[in-house]
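Protein 1 of 2
SEQ + STRUCT:
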Amino acid sequence: MSEKKLEGEYCPEKIYFSDKHAEVYCYRKDTPTELIEKILAYLKEKIPEPLEMAADVGCGSGQSTVILAPYFEQVHGMDVSAAQIRQAEATRSLPNVCYGVCPAEELPLKDGSVHLLTAATSMHWFKVDLFLTEVRRVLCDNGVLAVYGYMSMKPDFGDPEVEAQLDRLYNEYFKTLEPYHVSASLEMFKNKYKDVDFPFEEVVRCPDVRCRFEGRLVDIVNYVSTFSGFQKCVKENSTLATECIGDFQKRLYEIGATFKRSPEDTVTLYRDYQLILCRKTNK
């Protein structure tokens, strides 16, 4: 299927097809090990090692794909955007990882061949019913679908009042960009897929998983610049986009300054991941 046809049929946000946006996605951090280990613990309850094949659908530039490589003999990263796949191949290439361009609703995988299929901060962009039907087809008996993602990345200063300030900062950022978001997709994700009927025998909606790591305040600014709404705003109203990201940056750095942290200083950051685990137990 040609890139133009993929763009027309499967991607409401055409920005994902640009090389520039694929480069911006590299600001996103790799999936944390503790989250993958939680997923693997669930998988291994009914599938023993060695684990053969994993697939990461909507893989973007590979941050959620390479994290699977140490645990599986073969890992497939797939995305509807050729630009994202080119970026993944250039920056996150490993011997047992292969990347390919395809829609989430038409996976080039054999029936019953996949032990684990992941969709990281991506399922809300898919035609969900078609995607979930395809997932059931490719998963082996007792295979697992793991749907996960996070809305924000924040500094952990250990102060509830500051955390409330950061919540307001993100809410206002989202509000400014609201006209540029694909609202149905964003609401599905913000709602933690609560309205999605997952067609599996086992469905476990995990409490949010907080993952901490070392980073910088500038990493947060780079991260929010990857949001689809912001990238669309850049194309359609560059002045507003500049003002929006400038205000976010200014207020974030002011919060950091109260703790004597510069934008480039190392601080503790965190992401709250939503995680849904689904197991196929009937062929």
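Protein 2 of 2
SEQ + STRUCT:
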Amino acid sequence: MLINNALDFPGNTTLPGTTFPAMPFVFVGDKAFALGEHMMRLYSSRGLSIARRVFNYHLTRARRVVECAFGILANKWRFLHLPIHLKMETAISAVKAACALHNFVRERDGYNFEDSLSHSLESPNQSGVRGNRHGAAVRDDFTAYFMSPQGELPWQLEAI
């Protein structure tokens, strides 16, 4: 939740089945966002190790899920295609209302596969923003987790 212009994140938590240090909750972003403790972005694509390519694969999959879900929601509730010019509290209520109405319509009318086939969200102008060292350390910890027996996917090496 946004409080005093800052996000109030849940406390760090240990990843399932690991003894890794407790990890923060994070957003997944693209290169338009600076790497930070709570913002993950891809490693630069030059000369990546296998572990870093695996991390990029996991992050790309996560971003794709989020982008598809938001695309489905935005195609039904067109106001999400534009900047929301409302007070923060009102914008939060509008987005929550769109989610609740979306779920209500899906429950009432059933799932419409056509809704999920396309969305036309514009990509922002990406300018490659640098991050901080703590964010890099968090990303490296996630990279190690995705290469560990607890965090790996059976097909991840074939997918990169």
